[in-house]
């Protein structure tokens, strides 16, 4: 995967959002801001991108996005429920109409039998309705490759969500 693909994906996301009057926020853990970076690499992205939250630690998820501590303690930071809470928090703590959140185990360490290296949860959230989740198990790829594939998946999810939303008045 090369950066040209990210650029084309980001352009498509921005065009879809622009056409519907949507703005975007990102909430990223294992990608450390790479999705926001891909979107803002496109000139003129400031009319769509509101902000990005890099919430690498559990405390950051709690403090910046309002993810309930009890949810993290119950399900773990790498879970569907926490991904949704991150995505909801990104919309709730911004002016954005939609968001994407990513939480996972990029490795090379940190994996368990239940949550192995390469497990990543994605959630996309809209103020106006649709909410999407994807769980990916990238396997024993390198940390860099897991992060790159996560950016690709997140951009695809944003594009999918934008496509499901009707034009705003």
UniProtKB/TrEMBL annotation:
UniProt-listed Enzyme Commission number(s): 3.5.1.42
SUPFAM superfamilies named in the record: CinA-like
EC main group: hydrolase
Domain CinA C-terminal per the UniProt entry, residue ranges: 10-160
Superkingdom as given in the UniProt entry: Bacteria
Keyword entries, A-Z: Hydrolase
Entry-linked InterPro entries: CinA-like_C, CinA_C
One of the record's GO molecular function terms: nicotinamide-nucleotide amidase activity
NCBIfam families for this protein: PncC_domain
Name by which UniProt lists this protein: Nicotinamide-nucleotide amidase
């Amino acid at each position: 995967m090369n950066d040209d693909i990210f650029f084309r994906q980001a352009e498509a996301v921005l065009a879809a959002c622009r056409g519907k009057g949507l703005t975007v926020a990102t909430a990223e853990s294992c990608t450390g801001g790479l999705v926001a970076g891909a979107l803002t690499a496109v000139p003129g992205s400031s009319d769509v991108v509101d902000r990005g939250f890099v919430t690498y630690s559990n405390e950051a998820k709690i403090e910046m996005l309002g993810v309930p501590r009890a949810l993290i303690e119950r399900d773990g930071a790498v879970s569907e429920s926490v991904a949704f809470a991150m995505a909801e928090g990104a919309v709730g703590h911004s002016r954005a109409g939609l968001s994407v959140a990513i939480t996972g185990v990029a490795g090379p360490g940190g994996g368990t039998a239940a949550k192995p290296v390469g497990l990543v949860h994605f959630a996309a959230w809209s103020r106006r309705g649709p909410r999407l989740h994807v769980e990916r198990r990238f396997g024993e790829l390198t940390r860099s490759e897991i992060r790159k594939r996560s950016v690709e998946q997140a951009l695809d999810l944003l594009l999918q969500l934008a496509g499901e939303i009707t034009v705003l008045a």
